[in-house]
Design brief:
The complex is a heterodimer of chains A (252) and B (294). Chain A is built from eleven helices and no strands. Chain A has 252 residues and is mostly helical. Chain B is α/β, with parallel strands linked by helices. In chain B, strand 11 and strand 12 form a beta hairpin.
Chain lengths: 252, 294
Amino acid sequence: MTALAAEAIKFRTVPTGPRSVLAAAVLAWLTAALFLAGLPVTTGSSLAETPPSDLVSAAVLGIDVAAIVLIVLGALVGGTDLATGLAPVTYSLTPRRGKVVRAKALVVGTAALVAGIAAAVGCVAIGVLAPTVIGAAPAPLTAEGLRLALGALAAPVLYGVLALAGAMVLRGTGGGIVVGLGLLVLPTVLDWVPGLAALKVVLPAAAIHGLAGASHPGDPEFLAAAPAALSFAGWLVLAVAVATWTTGRRDV
Amino acid sequence: MIEAVGLAKRYGDVAAVADLSFQVGPGVVTGFLGANGAGKSTTLRMLLGLDAPTAGRITVGGMDYRDLADPAGTVGALLDARLHPRRTARDHLRWMAAAAGLQASRVSEVLAQVDMTHAADRRGSALSLGMRQRVGLAGALLGDPAVLVLDEPLNGLDPAGIRWLRDLLRGLAAEGRTVFLSSHLMAEMEQTAERVVVIADGRLVAQVGVEELRGRGATVLVRPADPADVDGLEAALRSAGGRVEASPAGLTVAGLAPAEVGRIAFAAGIAVQELAQREHRLEESFLALTGGAR
């Protein structure tokens, strides 16, 4: 608990942390509004004619932007101790380095969850209320749309923690950003390479899409909700375990 | 009590510390002397469990640092006066206190102890090096530890700050704490420490009291009454094992006590006009001991 309290204070007492959480939510809302504004152009249908589930799913894409902000934040949390020369202080106060890694992961995960919830609530509201801009009735929020939003919450949490672990393993903020963004775009890259699309099912994106119900049976990355939850948890545990192992083995 | 036994650290082909053994006891300020790159910081990092020794051990109260039940309450450390540039001194100490499992109220106490209350809410980027040293020292004192380990704590302090730190460290040692500090500022170390551990090229050179170290480097200046006797006296002193250097002022003799020099001159039938002991500064003794090695 002491390491967690220390990391929480570290996070709160540098403006970058809280501001990034706010920025993630605001950017998600702006992106959702932008997607919906462009929808009539890209689909050829007005907002009133677009199915409600499509409005919400388009708006929820804004949460991906929150995930990108959380990748940067996670990498910053993982790399700042080294960049500012505070790693010796951190690890001399908490010699069991795994505690520090777990505390940082909890702080990033919590910040990501807060940002994700704010982003999701805003994005869903934007999707539901979009038709009112042109005088139509609000789009009803379906169970499918709600699951999409709730599942999408997992993205900032998972990618934020992956970026944190990447920064700790590679000993730098830049490394964390590369790891986070790399895993985010890897499914697209695998689509380009013949025969590799089958690997998408083990990637973090498959877990998130499975939780959100955004993938369907027959898709190379399809996972049902329960396996998706297991994959999500597995990636989190793997990220923390690898960061703990490498941080514990080497000199600070 | 800090104890190093056969401590070694290699970085590839480079031996930063080699077969280093020493003890640092409570109740006195012990200086850790060595040129830049001698292995002082590496040794302190191994003491704090930050770097793993290649061989040997360094313990606090017989335990590896990582095995201490209450690290911050046992050892207070200042390795580098760093703060996050955007975090205030008070917040810096707040997270340190939280990591050590201490009440936040302790932060105000140590800020007052290092005379930094007035600048506690300044960000790290707005603090001078001397102020950061004081904040770092406050961090080391947070857990009211029995052992203090300070790496170059005098850097950046003005003369008043150095005097303040000297008095503080002596006071802490007088309370029965173990105070171990490294510094390359020999003149200040001379006035602050009572004992020293001297290393060069990662190896122990001496572990002595400051007075003894100064004495080891002491020389005797002797001048015959008749300048024609200089060569004869020099030969007599050399044959007795003295290391002699001739200069217009006379003969400077190392390795022989003043009384011994006087007896040798008397035995050789040489009248002496001047015989005086020249006590070396710690810096000269250090250089004589290490031979200019790193």
